[in-house]
């Protein structure tokens, strides 16, 4: 099918890809056929020997080869906004320089944002009139808005940050800005004046949370005031200019009911998740980058009792809990002298002295997993965390490897016993190839047999195919387990009837 695999002498051949050639018989068929041509008569003088002047017999027709076509070249991503001309940026640069020479920044800082914006607009209008720039009304409005954003906000990023349908903003240098909308990445027509303007905006973002980014410290994690996660990597590590990535959060916080509308989980599966959050199971949310782990964690925290004291630990604070009694903690990087760093492990250790009822770790990625497991099985039921992994089984393996990263020399069986005694539920989230996000597994950790951790799936997501528009179709199904391992815990909280009804309804739907 793909060429020769090998030769008879045992040597390995190289796969061949040849274009198909028309069969000889098809070419001959185009000429008019005559009886003489179809059945030539042999000479009477030498019936078995061909004549010297006779034309050589045509070679037998070669069988047509099957061609292997290369996959189609992906089309360039569509640009959502028109690109502005160089003359626009030249005009903007002149107006901006004149504005900086004219305005008193110390007085501007004393004004509220709306008043400062009006003051800048008035001055820019005067500059345009004095310099006599030839501009249409719409171009002048765009220029006014851009300059206000440059002075008071985040420059060209402001229109993107104002949109609620964007999930990610990816800036690859000053000329390329991409966004993710509905699971698909698209290029925009937005650009920065130069790499220095982009770096200045990045420094403005990270300075608001007491961090810095420059050549001596080129990597930085930060957050926006609304909790959106920001990552900056600057030259010399970023070769083509500063790379900025922003993971945006919707202004309206998502709930499990909204995830049901989006198809991320079925109504019965959402009911099971609500019960799991309510009865204080220890939960680990597993998934890849961009699969919706933090969003799901936010949704589950809605079912925590309002009387409980909750402490969160994060690298950049992005969890949005609705309970009144919440303490939010955040790690801190080292200063210029390499001192003052506060790691996630330090925060988790300190949590245990703050009388928490639940500990929530935004992202577990190192030795702090051991302290979180210790908290889970020492009276802090209902603790939660997220881990990067591809499946529930892989999640357990990653927990073991992260414990080993901490330098603990515990026997493997002991480590697995700690994991089994700590983790109750693993929820697997995935981002499918069509850009949609789905909860693919709700899995229980039920015990050990020998040295092997035993798990059982309660809910699975089965993909059935895709529709005409390329969207994947599937459904969440029950595995038929009517009495989960956390049944006694559900009965303790009076939720066993709701749990049984949800599992039964899911099983009937599958039938």
Describe this structure in words.
The chain is α/β, with parallel strands linked by helices and 511 residues long. Mean pLDDT is 80; it is low at 1-55. β1 (166-172) and β2 (176-181) form a beta hairpin. The protein has helices spanning 24-30, 35-38, 86-102, 105-108, 113-131, 137-152, 158-162, 195-207, 256-262, 267-278, 293-301, 344-351, 368-376, 392-405, 412-422, 487-492, 496-510; strands spanning 166-172, 176-181, 184-187, 219-223, 229-233, 243-247, 283-287, 310-314, 326-330, 358-361, 384-388, 425-431, 437-449, 452-466, 472-478. 34% of the residues lie in helices and 19% in strands. α5 packs across α6 (137-152) and α12 (344-351) packs parallel to α13. The radius of gyration is 33 Å and the shape is elongated.
State the main characteristics:
single chain; 511 residues; alpha/beta; 9-stranded mixed beta sheet; 6-stranded antiparallel beta sheet; 17 helices; elongated; disordered N terminus
């Amino acid at each position: 099918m793909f060429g020769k695999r090998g030769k008879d002498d045992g040597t390995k051949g190289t796969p061949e890809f040849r274009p198909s050639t028309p069969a000889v018989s098809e070419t001959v068929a185009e000429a008019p056929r005559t009886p003489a041509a179809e059945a030539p008569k042999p000479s009477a003088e030498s019936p078995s020997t061909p004549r010297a002047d006779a034309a050589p017999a045509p070679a037998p027709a070669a069988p047509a080869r099957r061609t292997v076509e290369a996959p189609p070249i992906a089309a360039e991503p569509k640009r959502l906004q028109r690109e502005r001309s160089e003359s626009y940026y030249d005009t903007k640069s002149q107006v901006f320089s004149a504005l900086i020479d004219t305005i008193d920044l110390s007085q501007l800082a004393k004004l509220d944002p709306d008043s400062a914006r009006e003051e800048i607009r008035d001055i820019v209008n005067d500059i345009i009139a004095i310099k006599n720039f030839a501009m249409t009304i719409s171009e002048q409005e765009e220029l006014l808005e851009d300059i206000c954003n440059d002075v008071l906000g985040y420059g060209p990023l402001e229109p993107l940050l104002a949109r609620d349908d964007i999930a990610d903003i990816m800036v690859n240098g000053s000329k390329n800005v991409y966004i993710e909308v509905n699971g698909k990445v698209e290029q925009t027509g937005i650009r920065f004046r130069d790499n220095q303007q982009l770096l200045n905006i990045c420094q403005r973002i990270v300075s608001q949370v007491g961090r810095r980014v420059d050549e001596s410290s080129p990597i930085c994690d930060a957050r926006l005031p609304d909790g959106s996660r920001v990552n900056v990597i600057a030259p010399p590590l970023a070769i083509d200019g500063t790379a900025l990535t922003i993971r945006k959060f919707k202004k309206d916080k998502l709930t499990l009911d909204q995830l049901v509308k989006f198809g991320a989980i079925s109504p019965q599966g959402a009911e099971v998740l609500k019960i799991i959050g309510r009865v204080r199971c220890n939960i680990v949310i597993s998934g890849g980058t961009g699969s919706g782990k933090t969003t799901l964690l936010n949704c589950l925290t809605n079912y925590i009792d309002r009387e409980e004291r909750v402490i969160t630990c994060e690298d950049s604070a992005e969890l949005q809990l609705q309970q009144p009694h919440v303490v939010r903690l955040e790690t801190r990087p080292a200063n210029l002298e390499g001192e003052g760093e506060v790691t996630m492990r330090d925060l988790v250790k300190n949590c245990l002295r703050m009388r928490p009822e639940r500990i929530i770790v935004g992202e577990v990625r190192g030795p702090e997993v051991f302290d979180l497991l210790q908290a889970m099985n020492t009276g802090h039921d209902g603790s939660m965390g997220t881990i990067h992994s591809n499946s529930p089984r892989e999640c357990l393996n990653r927990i073991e490897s992260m414990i080993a990263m901490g330098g603990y020399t515990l026997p493997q069986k002991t480590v697995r016993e700690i994991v089994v005694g700590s983790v109750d539920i693993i929820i697997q989230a995935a981002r499918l190839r069509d850009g949609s996000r789905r909860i693919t597994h709700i899995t229980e950790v039920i015990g050990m047999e020998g040295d092997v951790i035993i798990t059982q799936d309660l809910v699975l997501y089965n993909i059935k195919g895709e529709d005409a528009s390329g969207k994947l179709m599937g459904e969440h199904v029950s595995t038929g387990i009517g009495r989960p391992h956390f049944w006694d815990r559900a009965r303790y909280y009076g939720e066993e009837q709701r749990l049984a009804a949800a599992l039964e309804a899911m099983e009937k739907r599958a039938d």
